[in-house]
Specification:
mainly alpha; Helicase, Ruva Protein, domain 3; 2 domains; disordered N terminus
Length: about 400
């Protein structure tokens, strides 16, 4: 059963929404449930950004599937064949899945017995394996299990696999390609955001490559956020907004840590500092400010945006409503387009490297071919006769 505001660190939930104000809490809960009933994604987007997000796991069980476009009829049909995935061919990455699942549930829940944790790990393994076997083209990445464990803790069994499958194929597909290049292309947008918002900070941060953001952007922050209530609330916003919003959240966190970051001069220490999230983040403030940052400097205004593939989730999932209407087959089609682009780019780079390594030989061949043509072409011969002294002939 989904839990409402589970306490995972021994303290009470923060009441930034003034949760002691029961009328305000009741009003917001009513608004969210009404938006869920109407499947109104626009209203859910606004409510997800506002303080407290979707408030409870019981509400998230309704809101998250809507944002991801989980079809109730398809879900019921899936339930009838829920065991059939076990008969499908094994996915090539299942060995790594087992290793990562063994390391799951490190920070939360912290009140389970070992037997309960073992059961959750078994469920997590089944969830990931089912999604991968049903979408065998997807490539598992380390950290995927961090995302899936949040879905396992929030959503009921009947909804988990469908929600994670759609998230994987339509929202985080770039990270499940056979190359890291699309992920790196996303990271390049973070310095662009910083350049637009704070040129001095950008100049300082640019001393190191943006790989410091890889762990958080790959895992929707699930790898580094230690409190269950925080990551569940953050997922409210990330699922309600387009995929690029994750990059703006990270950029906003960097902007909030401006003074701390300027204290680091060595590139290695700068990278280390940027790659570690502070534990005292005010996530509600970060989310609101990230939304404002997004409005001021939208993705299409960023210099590196043109380098992002048109098949990237950053572009195919720009409108959450449109993305929710896409099918898993659409996700597969986008995947194949981007995979072919990556293969072509790899072949192009290999040819360029080969050409550069053999540039002297290629230049000699070109010069030789030009000399032969020069001798045979009448027009060039006439020009040569006209331009050179007669004693050369």
């Amino acid at each position: 059963m989904a839990r409402e505001y589970e306490v995972v660190d021994g303290s009470e939930e923060k009441d930034d929404l003034n949760f002691r104000d029961e009328p305000a809490l009741t009003h917001k809960r009513t608004r969210i449930l009404d938006a869920c009933k109407r499947r109104d994604i626009d209203d859910l987007q606004a409510l997800a950004i506002s303080t407290g997000g979707f408030l409870t796991d019981a509400i998230r069980c309704q809101a998250w599937p809507i944002l991801l476009g989980v079809n109730i009829d398809q879900r019921e049909e899936r339930e009838k064949t829920s065991d059939s995935w076990g008969k499908l061919e094994q996915h090539r990455d299942e060995g790594q899945v087992r290793l990562d699942v063994d390391r799951s549930f490190v920070y939360y829940p912290n009140d389970d017995t070992q037997a309960q944790l073992d059961e959750k790990k078994s469920q997590l393994s089944d969830l990931i394996t089912e999604v991968l076997r049903r979408q065998p083209y997807l490539c598992y990445f380390q950290g995927y299990h961090d995302i899936c464990q949040v879905f396992l803790l929030v959503l009921p069994p009947a909804t988990r696999a469908a929600a994670v499958a759609r998230l994987s194929a339509l929202r985080i597909r770039d990270f499940m390609l056979p190359s890291l290049n699309p992920s790196v292309a996303q990271l390049r947008l973070i310095p662009d955001i910083l350049r637009a918002a704070d040129p001095a900070l950008y100049a300082h941060v640019s001393r190191t490559e943006p790989f410091f953001a890889l762990s958080d952007t790959l895992t929707m922050f699930a790898h580094n956020v230690r409190r269950y209530s925080d990551i569940a609330r953050l997922f409210d916003a990330l699922l309600a907004r387009e995929q690029a919003f994750t990059l703006y959240v990270f950029a906003q966190i960097v902007l909030r840590r401006r003074d701390e970051i300027f204290e680091q001069d060595e590139p290695d220490m700068l990278h280390f500092t940027l790659s570690k999230l502070p534990e005292d983040l005010d996530l509600d403030a970060v989310i609101v400010d990230a939304a404002a940052l997004f409005e001021r400097y939208p993705p299409e205004s960023l210099r590196s945006w043109r380098s992002v593939s048109n098949s990237s989730t950053l572009k195919t999932a720009r409108d959450v409503s449109i993305c929710a209407a896409q099918t898993l087959e659409d996700g597969h089609r986008f995947f194949e387009r981007q995979r072919r682009e990556l293969e072509w780019a790899q072949r192009r780079d290999e040819l360029l490297r080969t050409a550069w390594a053999n540039r002297a030989l290629i230049l000699a061949v070109v010069v030789g071919a030009g000399a032969v043509y020069f001798r045979k072409a009448p027009i060039w011969s006439n020009l040569a006769s006209w331009s050179m002294p007669s004693h050369y002939f």
